[in-house]
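I trust your eye. Have a critical look at both lines of this record:
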Amino acid sequence: MSNFKHGDTVGCFSGKKPPYEYRVWDAMIQRCENPKTQHYDRYGGRGIRVCERWRNSYADFLSDMGRAPPKTKIERINNDGHYEPGNCRWATTKEQARNMCRNHWITHPTTNERLTITDWAARLGINAGPLLRRIRGGMLLETALSLPPLGSRTHCKRGHEYTQENTKTSRGFRECVECQKIRGRRKTS
């Protein structure tokens, strides 16, 4: 661990674990400055740094961030920004998952509201995977974001409406003709 500073770490050398915030502070510095640290390539290797104030003083880090609420980790609000006051907060795993750079963001075409697929799905009362399949299946974004939950009696699992023209019954099950066309195109490509 980095050099101990601040009264928080008194007794750590006698076998007592340092406080959670101290371990977060130390790990933050390691992943930004030590190339031998796991995931250095995602942090220091791509230019993410710890501001000088925090790098040089655990006390300043603790003063700026405060104690971590239960079940939270440090998060950079802007994933391309540095570890510094104003760009860091304590966040739950769920909050962190919504702030990842690989998230799929969607802006509603009429309201201009921008949310992740996960947030749109939660609002619609459906899972994110089927919503993404609606969109990737060629459904207009506005339609995909306004349909009832998937698997309802009026729509197939991809959100296509069951109409006389778009419904086929096979072995006692209702099938969506549009989905069959999509599956057929995938098999031939």
